Structures are given as structure tokens and as C-alpha cells.
Sequence to fold (430 residues):
Amino acid sequence: MKFSKVPSLRGEITVPGDKSISHRSVMLGAIAKGTTEITNFLQGADCLSTISCFRSMGIEIQNEGSRVLVHGKGLKGLKRPGSPLDCGNSGTTTRLISGILSAQDFDVILTGDDSIQKRPMKRIMDPLSQMGARITSLQNNGCAPLSIQGGILHGIHYASPVASAQVKSAVLLAGLYAQGETSVTEPYLSRNHSELMLKHFGADIRCEVCTATIRPAGELSGCRIPVPGDISSAAFFLAAGLMIPGSEIRIKNVGINPTRDGILKVCQAMGGDVTLTDVRKDSGEPAADILVRHSALHGTTIGQGMIPTLIDELPMLAALACFAEGETIIRDAAELKVKESNRIAVMVSGLSAMGADIRENEDGMIIRGGRELHGARIDSHLDHRIAMTFAITGLCAQGETEILGAECVNISYPNFYRDLKRCVSGGAFQ
Ligand code: S3P
Fold:
């Protein structure tokens, strides 16, 4: 797919439902008693992988488009699947489902695509094994395919070496079934959607600063989950609005959970004109409309506890920093290397090819903004966030930017190019 400079982006857009919340609503719905009604569910390939895994374990799930009904069978209602569970490209499916499977009285094999078979799973194998599950990496490389033999679990107090919501959630989900109390402490607070949703389904869970503690408390109850728009998808329009002269975009119904809203704070710290309107809360998750206008930006430093609140937005922020005066430093972000691609290496090579002044560090990048970018051929490495980042960057570069593997946006935002096209006034891309 090819992109070239556009004069401005204007209009109103509604981004699809939050990926993290969509996954969790199907998982908790499946192990709750009764029906869970999910609205604004993200119909991205990752969330469809979660649906398909639970259908293979005997859960009836009606997918009616943006509404999904999950007919849960209770904590012990899953059936042994007839074949390995395929998690596709989804790290969230693989890691969170492992927590649930660790407590089932059947064994199962968990696998996924080439990318998922390279991503680190030892981070969940360690705590789940400590709780009593038997999990092995079939290639003995700490990655999927995983063999999981569930059983009787006991609670642990786990000090996670990484601030990862996927690790935390895997342990908490296992903790639903464990004898005694299970807690997870992280170095910095990662997204807390699991904790909020577990509470909403009736679990006995409490949270203090960076520690979440769960106790088994009988069955969860099916409920209603309205999924807010995904701030990680909104991030592309937010950055585009700031970068492209003359732009003004209103992004409707975006989740602004404080464990996810780092992008808003960083854009504002860089001098971005970003305002929230109609702030509201439904089922524990806050949402708002976001109004963004083109702004003169300056560099900033992003690190430490801020990183988990914008981890998926860092590729887009690295590109945004090319349009800011002065230096932007991204540090404490080594986790970027183990996402769907090595997002530090891929961003540094792509932005360098477009003429940016960017250097790679062990745990981040340093960008000096202000140089005009030119088009280039960019390999998305089949990483959805990389494809979307370079599509936006291509709209502000001289000449043509070609993105290889552009269709991978179907993982988190199937209609991304259609929505982007709708906001373009006077320009074009094919
Ligand atoms: C997610 C957590 C984050 C994030 C991923 C979704 C989740 O991963 O990058 O896209 O839904 O829990 P980590 O837990 O590995 O940081």
C-alpha cells in the first residue's frame, strides 16, 4: 500500500473497541455462570483467536458483529479441546489463557503463528509452574507451542520482574482457582483491565499501588460489558492530527483508563493541543471524546512508570518525535524488543530510511526532530502497529511511502485505512 503527503486531516472518527478489554470480556464470560453481553467488541483477528479458542473448549459464543454473547459455563465448565488451541498472532490470548488452562483437569497444547512462536513465554511459565501447573515449551526454547497440564493450584505472592499486564493477568486468572491467596507485585503498574473486570464479574480482588491480590470466591456471574474505543488505535489519529498542518480531528468514545493514557500526557507535554470532552465511566472503565489540533511540538523524555501506560503507542510516538523541535528520549522500554516485532530495531531502521535523525539504545531510542522526512519502502514485519505508524508518517513525508504487509492491521484495526481515508481532505493514498 502506498501513501503520500496530504494537506490536512479533518473530521470525526470512532475507533474500534479496546483490544485488551475485548479479550478479557470473552475469557471471563466463558468461565462465568450465565450470559455475558459484550457491546462494541473488537472484531480484530487477535480477539477472534480468543473466541475460537473458547469455542474449541465447548463454550457457545454468538458473534453478531459489534455485539457478542458468551454463554459461560462456570469456572469448571471448559472441555478438553480436540486439537491444539491456535492463538494466532495474539500474545494476550496465549498468556492469559495459560492462566485459566493451568487450573483445568485436562491437558492442552497452545500454539500460534511464526511471530507468537518467537515471543517469550517463560515469563508466564515461571509463576504458573510455581502455582502447581506443569507447563513445558515443546521446542525447549521458552516459546510456544506450550504443553499445559493443569491441576490443583496453590496461591503464591509473585514479584514480577517486568511490568506486564499479560503476566499479571495470567497469574490472577490462575489465582481464581488456587487454594489461598494469590498476589502479583509489579515494578510499575501495568494496565488494570483484568482487575477492574474481575471485580465487575464478582471476584474477590483488591488492588494497592502495584500489587493485586485475588482469593477464590466461588463462581463469577455473567454480566454486560460495554467496550470503550481503543486508545492504542486512537493514538494514530491523535499523532496524525498533531503532525499534519491544518488538521482537526474529534475521536469519539475512547477509553482513557489512567493505566493506558500515557499518550495523552506525553502529547500534552510536547505542546500538543489535545482536549478531552464528555468524560464518563461505564462498568469501571472511563471514556471520553478527544479533540486534537495540529500543534507546534517540542521534544520530551519518556521513561520509567510512564512506559507501561503507553507501551503500544511508542512506535507512533517515535515517529511523532521527528516532527517536534529538539530531542526526544525514550528509555526503560526494552519490552519493545519482544512485541509482535522488535519495535526498537524496526522503528529505527524505518525512520532512518525516511531521513530521520534517530539512534537505537539498549532500552529505547533518541530522536532529534525537525528534519523533513521523505518516502521509503517500509517492511511492516507483519506488525500491525508498525504498519499503522508508517501509514501516518507517510502522510507527512515528501514523495511516496510504500508499506509491505500493510494488511496486517486486521489484527487490531481492520478498517484502519478506510477510516483514515475518510479524514483526508484533498490528498490520496492507494
Ligand atoms: C496487553 C498488555 C501489553 C500490551 C499488549 C496487550 C494486554 O503487553 O503490549 O498489546 O492486553 O494485557 P505486556 O503485558 O507484554 O506488556
Observations:
- Residues 19-31 form the longest helix (13 residues).
- The radius of gyration is 21 Å.
- The CA atoms of residues 185 and 208 lie 9 Å apart.
- The chain has a mean pLDDT of 97.
